[in-house]
Amino acid sequence: MVRAKTGNRIRETGSDRVINAAVLVLLAVLFVIWFFPMLYVVLASVTPYEDVVRAGLLILPSRPTFTAYSFLFSSTGIVGSFLVTLTVTIVGTLLSMALSILLAFPLSKKGLPGRALITKLLVFTMYFSGGLIPTYMMVRRLHLLNTIWALIIPGCVSTYNMLLLRSYFVSMPDELLEAAEVDGCGPLRTLVQIALPLSLPVTMSVMLFYMVTYWNTYYAYYYYCYDKALRPLQVVLMDLIRSATGEAEADEFVPTITVQMAAVVFSCVPIVCVYPFIQKYFTTGIMLGAVKG
Amino acid sequence: MKTRILALVCALALLLCALGAPALADDVITIEVLSDANASDDSTLESNFVRDRFKEKLGVDVAWNYNPELQTTLNMRSMSDDLPEIFAVPSRAMLTELAEDGYVLNLSDYADQLPDAFAFIEENIAAGKVGGDVYAIATRPYAFRAATWYNAKWFEQCGVTAENMPDTLEGFLALCRDLVARDLDGNGQNDTIGLTGTKWKTLRQLFGAYGCTIPNKLVCTADGTITDTMLSPAYYDALCCIRELWAEGFIDHEIFSLSDTQAVEKAMTGTALLVSCDWPSIKKAGVVESFLALDPDARWEIVGELTGPTGDRYVGDYNAQSYQRLYAVNADLADEPEKLSKVLSVINYVATEEGLELTSYGVEGEHWSRGENGAVNVFPEKVQEINFSWVYQLCGREDLSYCRMKFGEAAWPYILATSEQAWLDDVTKIIDKPSWYNATDAETFISESVMAFISGDAELTPESWAAFLEKLDTTYQYSEFIDYANGYYHELSGK
Amino acid sequence: MHKLERKNGQKRQRALRLLGKYWPYYLMMLPGLVYFALLKYAPMYGVLIAFKDFKIKKGIWGSPWVGLQNFRTFFTSTYCSRLIGNTLIISFTKLVLSSFMSVFFALLLNECTKRRFKRLVQTVSYMPHFLSWVIIYGIVYLFCSESAGYINRIVRMLTGSAIPIMTSNTYFRALLYFTELWKNTGYASIIYMSVIVGIDPGLYEAATIDGASRWQRIVHITLPAIRSTFIMLTIMNIGKIMNAGFDQIYVFYSPQVYQTGDIIDTYVYRAGLEEMRYGLSTAVGLFKNVIGFTLVFTTNRIAQKWGEGLW
Q1: Which of A72, A229, A236, A242 is nearest to B43 (CA)?
Q2: Looking at beta carbons, which residues of chain C come within 8 Å of B193?
Q3: Nearest Cα residue to C275 out of B121, B92, B174, B295
Q4: Which terminus of chain C has fewer Cβ atoms in its 10 Å neighbourhood, N or C?
């Protein structure tokens, strides 16, 4: 194999080309399968109702209309709920990430006494829980009822996510961390200055997972709060859709499907926009030179 | 700002309830109502005149707490002794448990404070009774709303009008089959469906013409016996008829996959000739408007009663003796007679004529004026403003006149017509299931088996039907359950 | 005697030394452990509800013990074996298929040379995750509806009759699997992507220089890199095998497909509507979780033999 003189590009072989082509074809097929229904959702949210019903899946946006969106925004509390969810997501994610990382790092140390026991205890909680009522009573005892913390704390740390972080820390080469120790870093500094920066792909992924969970907060509100000002976004959206399709008392009728689609788009857009920013941490070669250097 | 005060007051009220301290200042007390009826946020309303009136007249500030997760929330709050003053209970089963455990107040003891309320719900007061005493206000059920609708435009194209519409099931079905074959939507394909709808409700009029209704429903017959119409001899014939219709594609095969809106959409787009649904799904102003865009000269009319081979003409089943909602009162209030009397006054007030008018039409003079012979005339421009008040109808309402006001004269003929159709008395919701009866198993078995008979997955012969009934008896103890239901019903209603 | 004392002394010394070395780590874990203690372990006495005839007012301590009554109700149901069977089959198949698909997709992405296209596909791939099952159902209906669905329009042209995809026992599970994969493959592959991205590209270069083919590079570099994560996720997902996807099945099912599609959770849901059997759903939940955790334990044991495992 000859190395090209420009950089590290390695010349492709014939079979490589075939595989590349196959990969592209498969990905293109997958792209179509995923993209078009999503396109449908977006288009359905800006198309008049009768066109949506008539057109089935293949909507042509010939006369775009924003009735569905204006219906959403006309609902009171939508802006407030957006802020609530935003706050819950940001604060919650930070808290969850902090707690998860602080659990994952020590548990990745093979010599830690009680490591197996603690891990077993944490995994146990993934499958067994006391249930809603005792959890409710605990939340009440902690005076968190009807506060924004009730939307954050009960589901704060996910063992699943924590284990994902731990598995990354475990896979980090020991020499790296030992080198840090030799240089006089305490565990916390090692974690923050060495381990975390290197673990960005995994950390960012877990952060995304937490963000999505917090963004979808719904039930927690109805279990622990009643102040209308604390309603998260999904609650307001669901109420809206329910009221538009509910009993005969409903004020107006706005065609369900366009409103549902608008609600989906509205609640998805922020999260979907965040991903590309996270993607930039998914750069190959992050470990490059870490050990040698 | 208002919300924050509200939150503070609510929190304070809850705290005080928990501590069992006496109520706040003797003037206006605050109570919380927990319900799955969705009230608009006060900040969006011009004025919450219902709440204002309660404050002025009764000295009670009613804070409405909407929560769709009623069952869970009640579990949680009752366990922590944190129940609101008034709360909706999602089912009788839960009401019974709450009553047995002492969480809800025995309202019969306070009948003297609730004369109007009890009188208003007299017809179905038993639905809120546990062991002979009233433990919850069973709000008055809405008027009968079910109907089968036909595409009047198409029928008239073929020369059939309301006058010469056949009124027997046989004649009507023959006519429909004929129309279906004619490809009236003109798309060149023989794909028109006869009847569509959502779930079992689609078939209710077909069953009704045989004097029956959909399976697994307890029906109260004219002489007061409780039975399930599956056990009547005509049921087999009804199933044969339905099975035939299913096999030829007359009945939409997807009725279990559709929502109400989708079913009506199918009808509107010309995919189906008939649709079975309640009048709000098809005649509310907003619905009509949106469907006019689909088909500008569409006209949908009620089929009306159809007499079947047995001479019966039911259009569906109706919860005449049941309830729309159950509202219960926190038992802890028994220790606070003053506060309790105020709470009860709210419930009683909404059942008085004044209260009914308030929660249905608004404030006299502001939202409506009294016409001759006492009729209420709502100002058309105010209809929007009074939209929210229905949630406060803790005892129910005069459904027909309320709906007429709210949904307008355009919908009124249909509202009236549907309510006047013949129906079967469905008492399923008020019969509590005994612990030895596995209702879920029975329901699963019945749904699956009957569906298989209808769709052709299972052979329908007198023998196979008898075998089904037999198994229902032996494995699922269904007739034992019916006997039990009879006994239970007679005790409950005192009839 | 001296030996014993010395041993104890040595033990104590060792313990102190360990403590000295590891105390910062314990301190780090403290907030997280407090969370678990307060919000996961303290409420666990709620599990007792399963064994009691739950009477709300008396609370959990006051409710009389009814032993295994709640369990009996479920296990004597005529549908018990069918429910468990459906749950396990659907769950296991979903597990196998989605494990395979998410790894496969991650590999595909990794092997893609066009960076912009790869990013595009990746972004689009994780969007379906955000659609609720109700919406996905609506879209599926447009395709699979017997009367007007696109698939059936084609089928009808070819064969003259339609396939009742959504309402027939023959196709229902396949529909579940396909939609599940459609919704979650992208999202599930994120974690594999994040691991793959951490692989030293020098390894690939070295392998290519040594004459390794594309396929060999995948098998000997990429796959081993995700091995730990894969095993760990599989263990955790096996623990969830008794949850076959209630949200999805509830939206899609109907009495016509009870036979293949009715799972434990949908049955318990209907039971909850019929009566207020709070104890039943807890009892069944407990049963599911015991099975789940036992499976986790067992598979973890097996994994340990390969040097992997959760603990």
Answers
A1: A229
A2: 147
A3: B92
A4: N
Taking an 8 Å cut-off on Cβ atoms, the answer to whether C36 and A125 are in contact is: yes
Q: Which of B:224-253 have CB within 8 Å of C?
A: 252-253
- The pLDDT, as a whole number, for residue B5 is 64
Identify which of A89, A103, A200, A81 has the alpha carbon closest to the alpha carbon of residue A155.
Answer: A89
Interface check A172 vs C, CB under 8 A: no
- Identify which of B78, B254, B439 has the shortest CB distance to residue C167: B254
Determine the Cα–Cα distance for residues A209 and C187; give it in Å rounded to an integer: 9
> Which residue of A76, A137, A228 is in closest CB contact with B80?
A137
Q: What is the pLDDT at residue C65?
A: 46
Q: Distance, in angstroms, between B494 CA and closest chain A CA?
A: 32
Note the pLDDT of residue B3: 66
- The residue extents of the domains of chain B are 2-141+323-416, 146-318
Domains defined along chain C, listed by start: 1-67 (no CATH), 83-305 (1.10.3720.10)
Q: Using alpha carbons only, what angle is made at residue C206 by residues C201 and C210, rounded to the nearest 5 degrees?
A: 150
What does DSSP say about strands B300-302 and B272-278: parallel, antiparallel, or unpaired? unpaired
Find the angle CA(B164)-CA(B167)-CA(B170) to the nearest 5 degrees: 115
Domains B2-141+323-416 and B146-318 belong to one CATH topology? yes
CB contact under 8 A, B406 and A252: no
Q: What is the mean pLDDT of residues A197-217?
A: 91
Q: Which helix (H) or strand (E) holds C181?
A: helix C169-196
B146-318 in CATH: which number?
A: 3.40.190.10
Of C139, C144, B287, the C-alpha closest to A264 is C139
Least confident of A52-66, A240-254, C264-278: A240-254
Highest mean pLDDT, choosing among A46-50, B370-374, B466-470: B466-470
Q: Which of A194, A231, A187, A241 is nearest to A72 (CA)?
A: A241
- Burial code (b: 16+ CB inside 10 Å, e: under 16) for C74-86 equals beebebeebbbeb
Instruction: For residue range C90-146, list pLDDT tens digits in order.
Output: 999 999 999 999 999 999 999 888 888 998 998 899 889 988 898 899 899 988 988
Q: Which chains neighbour A (Cβ–Cβ under 8 Å, 3 or more pairs)?
A: B, C
- The interaxial angle of helices C133-144 and A14-45, nearest 10 deg, is 100
CA distance B437 to B458: 26
Q: Residue C52 — very low, low, confident or very high, per pLDDT cuts 50/70/90?
A: low
Q: State yes or no: ipTM above 0.90.
A: no
Cβ-defined contacts of B256-259 (< 8 Å, 24+): B256/B199, B256/B451, B256/C167, B256/C254, B256/C255, B256/C256, B257/C141, B257/C145, B257/C166, B257/C167, B257/C254, B258/B196, B258/B197, B258/B198, B259/B198
Q: What is the β-pairing status of strands B133-134 and B376-378? A: unpaired
Confidence band of B262 (pLDDT split at 50, 70, 90) = confident
**All domains in chain A, ordered by first residue:** 14-65 (no CATH), 74-279 (1.10.3720.10)
B314-333: pLDDT as tens digits? 999 998 888 889 999 999 99
Measuring CA to CA, which residue among A244, A66, A73, C78 is closest to residue B441?
C78
Hey, are the CB atoms on A249 and B3 less than 8 Å from each other? no
The number of CA neighbours under 13 Å toward the Cβ of B4 is 1
Is the CB of residue B168 less than 8 Å away from at least one CB of chain A? Answer: no
Residue B423: exposed, middle, or buried by beta-carbon count in 10 A (0-12, 13-18, 19+)? buried
Class of domain B2-141+323-416: alpha beta
Chain C residues in contact with B98 (beta carbon < 8 A): 56
Per-residue pLDDT tens over the stretch B102-131? 899 999 999 999 999 999 999 889 899 988
